User: Fold this.
Amino acid sequence: MTDSLSDLESRRAAVQTQLAQLGDMRAGSITGTGGRCGNPNCHCHNPKDPGHGPYFRLTRKVNKKSVTVTFSTPAALAKAQREVAEYHRFRELGGELLQVNEQICGMRPVEESVPSSQEKKRSKQSLRKSRAK
Assistant:
């Protein structure tokens, strides 16, 4: 199914509107951790006990290093989950915008133009070899 150029431009405008309406966002992933502590007398060392946790953490990359944030309250966790979901929506919309733009670029006609005398001079100068060797 081939869309017309005006249909694609309308889709692009709709995606841009959705992007403008996004709220607070943050990158990363939220995971739950749990386990057993180092105290041998703790309840978590019983075979039928599930252990401590789950403790939820947000992990993301900052300057090529992993940064982890632990949430102190369920409200902080819920807020972070909304922000991460908004980030995923941002990524999805960004991919959609790129796809529509690529289709638009493929459909637009190529405009042939005659290079000006200045452009011709610049291209000839760049072909000369450097004498400083």
Notes: The two ends are 58 Å apart (CA to CA). The beta strands are 29-35, 52-62, 65-70.
